[in-house]
Amino acid sequence: MASEKEAGPNKDSLRGFEVIDKIKYLLEEECPLTVSCADILAIAARDAVQLRGGPRWEVLLGRKDSLESSFSGANLLIPAPNSSLEALINNFAQQGLDIGDLVALSGSHTIGRARCVSFRQRIYEEKQEYHYGYDRYNRYTSFRRILESVCPVTGRDNKFAPLDYETPKRFDNHYFINILQGNGLLGSDNVLISQDYDGKITNMVWSYASNEELFFKSFAKSVIKMGSINVLTGNEGQIRKNCRFVNT
Fold this sequence. Notes:
The chain is an all-alpha fold. Helices cover 47% and strands 2% of the residues. It has helices at residues 17-30, 37-51, 71-77, 85-94, 99-106, 116-124, 139-150, 174-180, 187-194, 200-210, 212-226; strands at 113-115, 160-162. The protein has a two-stranded antiparallel sheet with strand order 1-2. The protein is globular. Residues 1-247 form the Plant heme peroxidase family profile domain. Its cofactor is Ca(2+); heme b. This is peroxidase. One of its GO terms (molecular function) is lactoperoxidase activity. Belongs to the peroxidase family. Ascorbate peroxidase subfamily.
């Protein structure tokens, strides 16, 4: 079975599977075939956000695990790091998520890292949407030089950089401050401002940049909504014994 882990957006990027394996092992020891891997991921994501200073929300439970893997789905449905704003809006809409969800969930880029291959285009391509912002103190110029030192024109594809250079280990609202200054790591971060021609998204970004509590509230609401997309229940799936394999 071709795994989603090997799909383009995930390969050599996703990490932490051994944490999920350990959680699953402990749960199976105490309560066999009771808690699905899908529910474990949803709870772990919530707890990771909270442990890094972010909001807490109630996780809806009762998901079943899939009977198959979707390598093609991962390649088609996960937005590319150089997506245009129009492509992002359409991608989210296909999953029942609106522009408000897009902006709030983009704030998750306040933690985590990306590979050089994901942001090289953003550094070296002379596109206006990648190079803009409120740069009174030449902060963008400095930021770009930092990125160039991490990610050269060729090579070092798997070298990592934090999605939020200012507070990389804290879940806060600094992502929105970054993109207002043109300092989003990914091209798809910066287009939220540079390609927002009617100003609706920019107003949301300003609101979250100035009010962390508002961002947290909106993020939690959108995560719950996202966590209800294409959920398997009843006989549609199974509770796996091992998250890496379908039960035999």
